[in-house]
């Protein structure tokens, strides 16, 4: 038999399923198995060309059936895949926008915090200066009052001094 004699299992889904059902379960198990080693061991100690060619044909038929089944599954889920890919792409764009928004918000927050800190320090400095000026103004008012009082006392003393001489 030649490889060109492989049955066209892609045209017959039932035949494809039958071929896949004939494959032994250990080929589908997870883990580290060496399929080629297992096939060589299954041939036995004596190998003749006819049985070897039949085995190669059988394996190629199975390979074709598995390939077709995978192809059918992928193709049948292609529209769902495209839709999910679009959803993932939109989600990535949305996440990039959100990340950009977060970065910009953090920059604005940092700038605002620095502005508040500098502005707050400026307000605090202005408040302290105003308080000092108020204290200075109070002291000047007190000095002015004392100066007036001194002037009046001097006037009164002069008047009293003059009255004593009279």
Automatic annotation (TrEMBL):
UniProt KW DNA-binding keyword: no
Superkingdom field: Eukaryota
Domain Vacuolar protein sorting-associated protein 54 N-terminal: 20-160
Keyword Aminoacyl-tRNA synthetase listed: no
GO BP annotations, alphabetical order: endocytic recycling; protein transport; retrograde transport, endosome to Golgi
Keywords linked to the UniProt accession: Coiled coil, Protein transport, Transport
GO molecular function: SNARE binding
InterPro entries per UniProt: VPS50 (IPR040047), VPS54_N (IPR019515)
GO cellular component terms, A-Z: cytosol; EARP complex
Name of the protein in its database record: Syndetin
Organism: Geodia barretti (Barrett's horny sponge)
């Amino acid at each position: 038999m030649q490889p060109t004699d492989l049955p066209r299992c892609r045209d017959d889904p039932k035949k494809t399923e039958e071929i896949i059902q004939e494959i032994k379960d250990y080929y589908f198990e997870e883990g580290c198995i060496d399929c080629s080693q297992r096939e060589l061991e299954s041939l036995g100690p004596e190998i003749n060309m006819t049985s070897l060619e039949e085995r190669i044909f059988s394996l190629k038929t199975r390979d074709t059936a598995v390939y077709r089944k995978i192809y059918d599954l992928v193709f049948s889920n292609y529209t769902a895949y495209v839709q999910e890919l679009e959803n993932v792409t939109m989600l990535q764009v949305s996440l990039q926008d959100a990340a950009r928004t977060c970065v910009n918000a953090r920059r604005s927050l940092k700038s605002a915090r620095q502005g508040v800190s500098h502005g707050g320090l400026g307000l605090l400095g202005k408040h302290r200066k105003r308080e000092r000026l108020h204290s200075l103004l109070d002291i000047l008012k007190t000095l002015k009052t004392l100066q007036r009082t001194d002037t009046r006392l001097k006037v009164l003393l002069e008047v009293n001094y003059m009255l004593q001489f009279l």
